[in-house]
Amino acid sequence: MALAITDANYEELLAGEKPVVIDFWAEWCGPCRMIGPVVEELAKDYEGQAVIGKCDVDENNAVATKFGVRNIPTIVFVKGGQVVDKQVGYAAKNVLEEKLKKIL
Asked: What is the DSSP string of 32-50?
């Protein structure tokens, strides 16, 4: 299951050794609801290899601001504390999985 990434815990998660994937979303966003199950599948498939989580932008503005998120859904791929890739808008599982495999 994807972790809840919040203003309170994101720095700790980024400081870890594993790559981090953050899905920036909001309850009212249709495309976010479409991509949500895909992110959950990736979290299950890559458990132990990467930290995969979801960040509700309405409740966690600091994280969204830090990553310059202006549109949702936005999925950010982080390795070594640095953003290495980004997907804005809906994408199929295979697209996100390819981006994730590149940083593993």
From this structure: HHHHHHHHHHHHHHTTTT-
Q: State the CATH architecture for 3-103.
A: 3-Layer(aba) Sandwich (3.40)
Cis peptide before 37 (omega within 30 of 0): no
DSSP assigned state of 80: T
Domains of the chain, by residue range, sit at 3-103
Q: Which two tokens stand for residue 79?
A: 């390795």
Residues of the chain with pLDDT under 50: none
Catalytic residue among 13, 26, 29, 91: 29
Respond yes or no: is residue 29 known to be catalytic. yes
Rounded distance between C-alpha atoms, residue 38 and residue 47, angstroms: 14
Distance CA 18, CA 46 (A): 11
By CB atoms closer than 10 A (0-12, 13-18, 19+), residue 103 is middle
Q: Which of 20, 32, 50, 100 is catalytic?
A: 32
Query: Which residues partner with 4 through β-bridges?
Result: 54
